[in-house]
Amino acid sequence: MKIDKDILDKVSDKSMLSTGELASICHVAKHTIIAAIERGELPACRTPGGHNRISRDDAIAFLRKYNFLSQEEEKKKILVVDDEPFIFEIVNNLFDGDTVVHHAANGYQAGKLAERERPDVILLDILLPDIDGREVCRHIREAAFGKGCRIIAVTALQSPDDKEAILNAGFDDYIAKPFRISELREKIMNLLAMKVSCAHGKR
């Protein structure tokens, strides 16, 4: 059985799901989901009240593993945060129909789009018109929806000390302007592959 796009959207709208919510999506009894958690087949965390909660990424990995969701049914998402539209156009032209590329021109739009779209990879300019990109990265990292996304810093800063400081600010990778398009694509593809590996429990 495959779940349709409407059900996938319901999963994507949540950062965490209860056992009952996931059971409803899978059309199985709640105790079936609890049993999967107890067997170690489905990662979950416990609330202070003793209830199980499953992250969005773990829920999607579980749905795929047991053939509720095919790999092709969820498109990869990239968010480009840059006030220069041509950066978005470059990234948008790099990928085919299996990837959706969104654009935010400032930090405020970036936060709203990141929460709504739950991108797999964010390409984040450090020098935004309204806020330092490092602050945007910090806010996304602190939010529940941002725990699993990968963030690449885009900056004109190029010294080893600058790179170290940027990575220490919470970014997964770094690319300096001006950059080669092939280098940018390689970095995005590497982080997309890393996201898929983590979703499937690989290290």
Description:
The protein has 203 residues and is of the alpha/beta class. The protein has 9 helices and 8 strands. The protein folds into 2 domains: 5-72, Multidrug-efflux Transporter Regulator, Chain: A, Domain 2 (Orthogonal Bundle), CATH 1.10.1660; 75-198, Rossmann fold, CATH 3.40.50.2300. Helix content is 46%, strand content 18%. A 5-stranded parallel beta sheet has the order 5-4-6-7-8, sandwiched between helices. The protein has a 3-stranded antiparallel beta sheet with strand order 1-3-2. Helix 2 packs across helix 3 (30-38) and helix 6 runs parallel beside helix 7.
Give a quick summary of the entry.
This protein is α/β, with parallel strands linked by helices and 203 residues long. The chain has nine helices and eight strands.
Q: How far do the termini sit from each other?
A: 29 Å
Which segments are poorly predicted (pLDDT under 50) over 5 or more consecutive residues?
A: 197-203
Strand arrangement within the widest β-sheet reads 5-4-6-7-8
- Strand tally is 8
Based on the model shown, name its key terms.
three-stranded antiparallel beta sheet, Rossmann fold, 8 strands, alpha/beta, Multidrug-efflux Transporter Regulator, Chain: A, Domain 2, five-stranded parallel beta sheet, 203 residues
Protein topology:
Elements: H1 5-12, E1 16-18, H2 19-26, H3 30-38, E2 45-46, E3 52-55, H4 56-65, E4 76-81, H5 85-94, E5 99-104, H6 107-117, E6 121-125, H7 133-142, E7 150-155, H8 160-168, E8 173-176, H9 181-199
Parallel strand pairs: 4-5, 4-6, 6-7, 7-8
Antiparallel strand pairs: 1-3, 2-3
Helix pairs in contact: 2-3, 6-7
